[in-house]
Amino acid sequence: MPLNESWQTAEIPGPKKASLIIKPDIADAMIRRAKRPIMIVGHGIVEYDVEGLKLIDYLIEFATKAHIPVVVTASTNREFLNRGFTPAALMPAVDIGNRLTDPGWKGFDGKDAYDLAIFVGLPYYMEWTILSGLKHFAPNLKTMTLDCVYQPNASWSFPNSTIKDWVVNLKGIVDGLGD
Amino acid sequence: MPLNESWQTAEIPGPKKASLIIKPDIADAMIRRAKRPIMIVGHGIVEYDVEGLKLIDYLIEFATKAHIPVVVTASTNREFLNRGFTPAALMPAVDIGNRLTDPGWKGFDGKDAYDLAIFVGLPYYMEWTILSGLKHFAPNLKTMTLDCVYQPNASWSFPNSTIKDWVVNLKGIVDGLGD
Amino acid sequence: MVNALSRKGVNLSIKELDSDIARFRDISISIGAIRQDTWHEPMGPTPFPTLSTLRNWDHALLKRYKPFYLPFCDLCCLCTYGKCDLTGQKRGACGITMAAQQSRIVLLTACIGAATHTGHARELLTSLIDRFGSDLPINVGDVGVEVEAPITRLVCGIRPQTLGDLEPVLDYCENQITQLLSVTHTGQEGSNIDFESKVFHAGMIDHVGMEVADIAQISALGFPKAEPESPLADLGLGTVDVKKPVILVIGHNVTPSAGIIDYLRAEGIQSEVEVTGICCTALDITRYSSRAKVIGPISWQLRYIRSGVPDVIVIDEQCVRTDTLLEAAKVRSPLIATSEKNCLGLPDRTDDTVDDIVRGFVEESIPGALILDPEKVGEVAVRTARLIAPKRKKQGADISKEELGRLAKKCTQCMLCRRACPNDLPLAQAIKAAAGGHLSLLDELYDDCVGCGRCESACTQKLPVHSLIIAAADQKTRTESYCIRTGRGPIQDTEIRKVGGPIVLGEIPGIVAFVGCANYPKGSREVAEMCREFAKRRYIVCTSGCSAMSAGMHRDEYGRTVYEQFSGAFEAGGIVNVGSCVSNAHIAGAAIKIASIFAKRPLRGNYEEIADYVYNRVGAVGVAWGAMSQKAAAIAAGFWRLGIPVVVGPHGTKYRRMLLGRSDKTEDWYVYDARSGGKVYAGPVPEHLFFAAETKEDAMVMVAKLTMRPNDTSKGRANKLANYIDLHKRLVGGIPPDVHLFVRSPADIPLTMKDDVTLYLKDHDWKEQPIPDPTLLPRLIHKKRV
Amino acid sequence: MVNALSRKGVNLSIKELDSDIARFRDISISIGAIRQDTWHEPMGPTPFPTLSTLRNWDHALLKRYKPFYLPFCDLCCLCTYGKCDLTGQKRGACGITMAAQQSRIVLLTACIGAATHTGHARELLTSLIDRFGSDLPINVGDVGVEVEAPITRLVCGIRPQTLGDLEPVLDYCENQITQLLSVTHTGQEGSNIDFESKVFHAGMIDHVGMEVADIAQISALGFPKAEPESPLADLGLGTVDVKKPVILVIGHNVTPSAGIIDYLRAEGIQSEVEVTGICCTALDITRYSSRAKVIGPISWQLRYIRSGVPDVIVIDEQCVRTDTLLEAAKVRSPLIATSEKNCLGLPDRTDDTVDDIVRGFVEESIPGALILDPEKVGEVAVRTARLIAPKRKKQGADISKEELGRLAKKCTQCMLCRRACPNDLPLAQAIKAAAGGHLSLLDELYDDCVGCGRCESACTQKLPVHSLIIAAADQKTRTESYCIRTGRGPIQDTEIRKVGGPIVLGEIPGIVAFVGCANYPKGSREVAEMCREFAKRRYIVCTSGCSAMSAGMHRDEYGRTVYEQFSGAFEAGGIVNVGSCVSNAHIAGAAIKIASIFAKRPLRGNYEEIADYVYNRVGAVGVAWGAMSQKAAAIAAGFWRLGIPVVVGPHGTKYRRMLLGRSDKTEDWYVYDARSGGKVYAGPVPEHLFFAAETKEDAMVMVAKLTMRPNDTSKGRANKLANYIDLHKRLVGGIPPDVHLFVRSPADIPLTMKDDVTLYLKDHDWKEQPIPDPTLLPRLIHKKRV
Ligand code: SF4
Ligand code: SF4
Ligand code: SF4
Ligand code: SF4
Ligand code: SF4
Ligand code: SF4
Ligand code: SF4
Ligand code: SF4
Questions:
Q1: The pLDDT value given to residue A178
Q2: In this structure, which residue's CA is closest to atom 5 in ligand 4?
Q3: Tens-digit pLDDT profile for residues C720-768
Q4: Taking residues C397-401, what's their average pLDDT?
Q5: Domains held by chain B: number
Q6: How many domains would you assign to chain C?
Q7: C-proximal residues of B, 5-34, CB under 8 Å
Q8: Which residues line ligand 5 at a C-beta cut-off of 6 Å?
């Protein structure tokens, strides 16, 4: 599988394409460097079974360890609640995307603008378009995706990977954060 | 300089992009494998001074060694004639491009369809569009460019290179053919 | 009118009149619309608005709902200066920015949409006038419809009474489309917001075009005339009697299909031939004859043709797969193209005899023909189908289960099919399973597949991937047997009078219209489920186009489709199928009629006031769950200008931008209080104008929220909030985090939720807000009429 | 007419007439064109053709000139099913192929072009009718012009006599544009050849629109009326008197600019204010007042505004850089937008007083305003310029030589500027040299730069790269002082009578029209050089639009521009500047008039026969060396349908396809011999219909070749061949390798080249061919009229 081709073959943006997260520590470094990260989680995550564990459980661990507030975009909320995790906010994907383009928006806690947005679990093409919006209209924001497919419009993306490789990467990131 | 980005930044075609000729022997192998190669030379070649030698002189050596018929697209003809080299044909670039999309066209010698078209020296964007035409409408033809810039619509292209590296490559190809 | 008439350069000059005593009475030169004298409503401020007439209104809306651009490409390739790289705040060679470029594409899209409806309307009207004369009265409702053309009256300021009166309306549309299209030329508009305003204008024009098309065909062809209980028609592949010769019609312009029915009627052989349809022609042909059958939306084209059932295929315009000729040839069905717009390279046989053409088809010497004469199409199609059906024996390109297994084994698991699939369906996985004899995965995909065929194009092994799915799901296709209420056309004035109060007061929580195409993220089912849910909740649910079909393709636990379960009346809990794409005009028309008939706001050429009314008081929301086409974009734009929000599915983000409000910015939500003239905070209602939902659940919660309006009475708001909170609790979990923004006074709180909500309000610094008499138009202050 | 009138639904009914003795005489209801009674030419077969009326003609041409598609993208992104990958013979989700997709984009482009001209025509006509009345007679030539509107007569079958008569012509255009645009909707046309036919139709409509625009403005505004010796106007930055207040007008619609001249005239201060222009408004304003000055084509916008010379900038529509407001603000020039199509987000000040607006500008409280009233624009612009000029002191954004060096040193040699440059200019190299104090490389780039500004957007160091070039070349800009013949409008019938014979017989080797935009591969100069060469060779050379300016921006060894060197008459060796973009209609019109006036072929509604005549007999070729815009595409398409080939520069390959003949396929070049009825080989003439040349030399040789026509007499062919061979020898080297294809008999061989050519023929198995009376239309056999 080609590493940095758009997962949906035709969804090619143009000259500006995401850097590859080849190793977990790249992602860790980015996350550490961010002053105000935020994670946006779409409904797709409940569909992923990652070696018996649900992706959502990784994400909860991840967010908790890294102290990253989580915005849940849709009905996934219930899954989080069931696991005793209360997301920082509930907000549709296009709404949070839109707010992130506003340099004056101080975030859900009213403190300051976010500088890193981590996306995961939106439908590929919808994540693609929202990341495109941010690429073009949120020049001060970095974006990252945790999906197992390449998202060219992010600042950083995983390559297209098998679920296996992806799990290794995800685990690596979570472990890295634990240090 | 990025190796396999379109030289004109915005001239991005889509999912189907040229393979890189990283080493001269790749090109040599392609040329050897071709049963009916042809070379299309645009007016740009007279503008290139390659370490004192004109690119056109390389090309004449190249074509002669490899027994590849040369089509000259424009006023460059005179430069060839001045050097005692008579091109196989004179024909505008879009005309030869058009003929190459016709599987029934038997070439200038009436013998058989060409299977490899080597382009060099057209204006970047015009070579781009003509190679696009061939990529889409001449499925049985392979194309290659000898320019020092990446042409995504060819089957094989050099990477974007400095004139220096390019000369090394070109020399390598010509030398390789001499074996 | 002055505008339009002076534009026509109409002059009447009587150079010499040899009479002293001659008296002329009632000399009328009718160039379409000069019958205004019989309409006593005074002309409003903006008849026949041009590109900038309603710019202030648009800018007011766009100040609240700022575009959130989602560029679908980093580049612009619209002229030969390009391609231009617009990343990183770069400008193109013409100086354009990415924001302006995206809105320019939206405008181009909306222009194509508006041109398509208007062009369709023009062809239809010309052919109806040819047949019935330009004096044929417009009649879209035998009872209860006095306002026959609310959009035309509103926009153009004229009241059309005959088919001929509709012609200058289309002249105006064509004129404005030309102007709008020219704006997309390199080096014209430079402001993204002005582009957006022009998008709204294109949308408004689109609605005029749609209205003209539908009222013309209703009047002339005897379609149901605002009938709440229009007949039910068969829906689904399983309803076709395959023993009969079968004709398939595809497209949007009913004229040639009507020719088929006419011929069958004339020959008295209606029961001997099955007339089946896909896309809007299907809907409209059932309005002409409820014996006709609807197969399904656009996504059914490949599967139905490949089934081999249709013996003759007749295509007209719009949403016809461009590979139809190829697919038809594979199953040896002759194809008749009937529109100048879609000739497919076929020889023009319009002037040949029916005998000759039929012979060519029967002898298979020609695969298809262009016939630009609806009557001839009718005869050729029927005669060919009857002669050819016994020969063809419905031989399709269907794949047997054995063949399926054999083919699946050729799959190399390269994943290219999945990567080509718009819905990212797990095809490779399913095919692997099929190779091992397990068809259930493939069978499951049937429900989610939009039938685009891209997987097949992409397959390196040339596997007919889509057909494999159909083969695995053959049991499903065979039993696809549902029904649909035939398109009723407009809403009666009398219905409006009945529901106007309940809607504006909020007893009916809202009008939800399911419109548009079948580019669904997860198949058709979700549309049916949403329809049912909102009807149950006593919203008024409208349907049209492909969505009207999808709505019918699902049965409840008692085996009922929504059309059987609910009434077809425009009332709480009704499921109102207005008809085809162009019938969407009646949904906008109903909102306009609420303002004009129920609230008695002046209608004629009075766009801003009516839109202001609808926006602030009528809780209507459009849902285009599978919006795909340029027409869908134009239709949405027409709703936006009227202040009606539109929700689309996730693919809708590809339309280049959303129009989103910011509920957190208090300053955005002030309105004028028409009573006091002051500016009053009225809350973020409706919160968005164009919103793409990620999931069905997302959409439903948002729809419930978007029905709220500043003018809601407390009782109404409480009703709307009850639905919003309940849906949120059920589908998302918990009380909606923004509920405090929608409660203005304790009376707004739904009784059954009093404790929860009150607690929540306390936690959120809530304070009471007045309920204004809301308007965005300063000129309406103190001019309240309701 | 029947078409058009029934479409309008015109009815005259006198319900009651109380008179026995009243007699009516000459009651005329004029809805535009109902004056046909005074035109005695019988109606031809195709008045007001619709999308498929001329399809056979198009298909005949397209059989010879098959599209060679040059996809500009592998993808389609026109609907939300997409993006779709169309590589490797894949089909889109709508079933479309790459060939059809490319032609669909061409159609979209041509529709935008046609809409732009038609929209422009409509606005112009409406405003002229408002001002002068709809009865103002059309008068485009005081002497010698009886056929006032050859294209309209040909296409519509009507003869317009007043401004009002032009309105239904535009109705028709708008109607057809709407239909054509709708064809680009997802799921309509599936055949690439039928798309191409529709492109031709769009082109034809475009020419009608252009003709209407230009004859309306010529008639109403007193532009030169077919005057061969229309006055010369100043051209170039160096001609501006910078001591005066300077107004800059940019765009295409002369109305607001005319308002400026009117105000100056009324106040008697014409000599006190400089009115300067860019793009076609510049050309048209010199037709209104030859004191106005032309700065240059579109590529001069950035450099001229940044020079600080213009005190007030007035923009109208089309080809106006969308960053003009920004650039204007940088040099503190207020900007007045005057078109609904291009509002730039500015406040609409149309209803404010002139005093208020001027005050706002002078106090710099507003950067710009939208004023939709040409008269008010005139007063505001002039008064503002006069008040503001002393304050502004022409402060530009010019860069001094010192500053240049300092800036150049910041360059990191990242090459992104070059990679952004449409012409791949060696910018980084030149800037490096400049950093070292050597400006000559940068200075050289001035001539090749098309002023798009993309280099600046791309620069990571935010260097004003384009301005650096201008700074290095400041000597050049200051001395840009040339002249241009003001647009003369149509060609006189009398001129046609004189040259018709020599053209058809070949004594005049051809008509070469240099038209279109400034997207040149190597700057403006090449256009001037080509014009001069062909005029010297006694071709008739026409110019228009940006190319007309470029043609004038070069002096020969005696210091003469082509406009000084050659006459302005439509005669051998004339340089005929017809005017602005819309004046291109007169070039097509001249070809049509040769068929109709000289050859007496019936004109009225008789498109195919006239096109067949032009195609087979009139050696006209269009050259759009810098074709960039959608309009250029539409104009070209209009020429194609008339059978006139168009040559474009290398950027023209981005128009998605060429239309190329195959000279090696003998079977493609048969025509009917109208005398014998037989099919006769007539050689590959003209060889191509749409051809992109790589270099100027390439283009010139091709132009000479493309003037050949099947009907050439031997003398004519010899003359054409002499030019072709001579140009080939000089520019390419040697005898053209295809010369044998163009010699039909020994008499065709140019005398001076007899030996060479005869030898060549011997080597190439040449054999004599008859010279037919050529036609592609079987119905013209035995009906020869010439
Ligand atoms: S329209 Fe503008 S941005 Fe688009 S290609 Fe042309 S110059 Fe570039
Ligand atoms: S036909 Fe169905 S499975 Fe195939 S690509 Fe289209 S939606 Fe996906
Ligand atoms: S594209 Fe074809 S070969 Fe590849 S995974 Fe899909 S079905 Fe298998
Ligand atoms: S609803 Fe959409 S897909 Fe269906 S017919 Fe209408 S436009 Fe086409
Ligand atoms: S806008 Fe569309 S067609 Fe143009 S380059 Fe981008 S993807 Fe390709
Ligand atoms: S128009 Fe056709 S090819 Fe283009 S994106 Fe839509 S479905 Fe794909
Ligand atoms: S402004 Fe001139 S140098 Fe700069 S990119 Fe454009 S053409 Fe090239
Ligand atoms: S883009 Fe700027 S920094 Fe880079 S080479 Fe050009 S001028 Fe220098």
A1: 67
A2: C279
A3: 999 999 999 999 999 999 999 999 999 999 999 999 999 999 999 899 9
A4: 89
A5: 1
A6: 5
A7: 9-12
A8: C 73, 75, 77, 83; D 73, 75, 77, 83
**Which of C170, C199, C221 is the last residue in one of the domains?**
C221
Structure tokens at D280: 């076609």
Tell me how far the alpha carbon of residue C516 lies from the centroid of ligand 4, in angstroms: 6
As a whole number of angstroms, the distance between CA D662 and CA C147 comes to 61
Q: Please check whether residues D657 and D729 belong to one and the same domain.
A: yes
Cα separations (Å) of C560 from C478, C484, C556, C577, C579?
18, 11, 5, 16, 20
Higher pLDDT: C371 or C143? It is C371
Q: Within a domain: residue A28? A: no
Q: Which of D74, D78, D80, D83 to mutate to test the interface with A (most CBs of A within 10 A)?
A: D83
Residue C449 lies in a domain: yes
- Collect all residues of chain D within an 8 Å Cβ-Cβ radius of residue C22: 17-19, 21-22
pLDDT tens-digit map of D469-502: 999 998 898 889 999 999 999 999 999 999 999 9
User: Whole-angstrom Cα distance, residue D50 to residue C122?
Assistant: 12
Range of the domain at A152: 39-176
Specify whether C630 is located in the same domain as C758: yes
Contacts of C629 in chain D (CB under 8 A): 79, 185-187
- Does the residue D44 lie in any domain? no
d(Cα C578, Cα C513) in Å, to the nearest integer?
Answer: 10
Residue B18 maps to a domain:
no
Q: Where are the alpha helices (DSSP H) in C506-544?
A: 525-536
- Using DSSP, state whether D66 is helix, strand or coil: strand
pLDDT in tens, D30-77: 343 444 457 889 999 999 999 999 999 999 999 999 999 999 999 999
Q: Are residues D276 and D207 in the same domain?
A: no
Residues of B in contact with C84 (CB under 8 A): 10
What average pLDDT does the segment B64-71 reach?
94
A5 at B interface, C-beta within 8 A: yes
Claim to verify: residue D386 and residue D405 sit in the same structural domain:
no
Integer Rg of chain D from CA: 27
**CA C532 to each of CA C542, C576, D339: distance values in angstroms, whole numbers, following the listed order:** 11, 12, 49
Whether D125 and D163 share a structural domain? yes
Query: Between C494 and D7, whose confidence is greater?
Result: C494
Q: Find the residue in C nearest to D94 (Cα).
A: C321
Q: For a ligand 1 pocket test, name from C73, C75, C77, C78 the mutation site with the most ligand atoms within 8 angstroms of its C-beta.
A: C78
Last residue of some domain: C195, C221, C247?
A: C221
Instruction: Please report, for the domain that includes residue C580, its CATH number.
Output: 3.40.50.2030
B/D interface, count of CB pairs below 8 Å: 129
Closest CA to ligand 8's atom 6: D417
- Among protein residues, the one whose CA lies closest to atom 2 of ligand 1: C94
Is A169 within a domain?
A: yes
The Cβ-side half-sphere exposure at D2, using a 13 Å CA radius, reads 5
Which pLDDT band holds residue B179 (cuts at 50, 70, 90)? low
Indicate if D73 and D151 belong to the same structural domain. Answer: yes
DSSP state of C745: S
Same domain, C198 and C236: no
Q: What is the ipTM of this complex?
A: 0.96
The answer to whether the Cβ–Cβ distance between D734 and B81 falls below 8 Å is yes
- CATH number, domain of C212, equals 1.10.8.190
D164 domain-assigned = yes
Flag if B12 and C84 touch (Cβ within 8 Å): no
Residue B111 neighbours by CB distance under 10 Å: 9
* Angle subtended at Cα C249 by Cα C562 and Cα D107, rounded to the nearest 5 degrees: 110
Q: Judge if pTM exceeds 0.90.
A: yes
Q: Which domain holds residue C284?
A: 232-390
Position A167 in a domain: yes
Q: H helices of D491-582, where?
A: 493-505, 525-536, 545-552, 562-565
Verify that D373 and D490 share a domain, yes or no.
no
Say which CATH number the domain at B163 has. 3.40.50.1220
